[in-house]
Amino acid sequence: MTKFVKKNEINNNWYEIDASNAVVGRLATIIAKILRGKNKATFTPHMDNGDFVVVKNIDKIKFTGKKFQNKKYYRHTGYPGGIKETTPEKLYNKKPGEALKLAVKRMLPGGPLAKKQLTKLKIYKGSDHPHGVQNPTVIELFKLNSKNIARN
């Protein structure tokens, strides 16, 4: 018999990730897993029992290959002929953390539960953040060599 976790049994932890030299897609998979709660033994698909994730140093994040200049993000305004496209380079100049947030958002299932889980993602440009009081657990990422990683 499967045991589902109840609302009063949910225990949310805080995690801190340093995004220096991390690849966007690989970092997004780790973050999406934590936000959904798939790293816990009490994972329940229809409930929000995921943890909070604080990502710092987002200004030092990397893209593999030439994706920083060539990848396209599309959105539609809702009006006829209203398709808009942008690249990670343009997105980075406006909002440095938006590319990572989009990658994580697209790895979560659609619907109101995913929107609630995405609010637990906190992204900061520098190494300082206001969540030190929560005493987040630091997650060390595997760093790749810089041969296939580019940003500017």
Characterization of the model:
By secondary structure, the protein is α/β, with parallel strands linked by helices. It has a domain at 13-61 and 100-142: Ribosomal protein L13 (Ribosomal Protein L13p, Chain: A, Alpha-Beta Complex). It has five helices and eight strands. It has helices spanning 24-36, 67-70, 88-94, 98-107, 112-118; strands at 14-18, 52-56, 63-64, 73-76, 83-86, 121-123, 137-139, 149-150. The strands form three sheets. Strands 6-2-1-7 form a four-stranded parallel β-sheet, covered by helices on one side. Helix 1 packs across helix 4. The radius of gyration is 17 Å and the shape is globular. 22% of the residues are buried. Mean pLDDT is 90; it is low at 144-152.
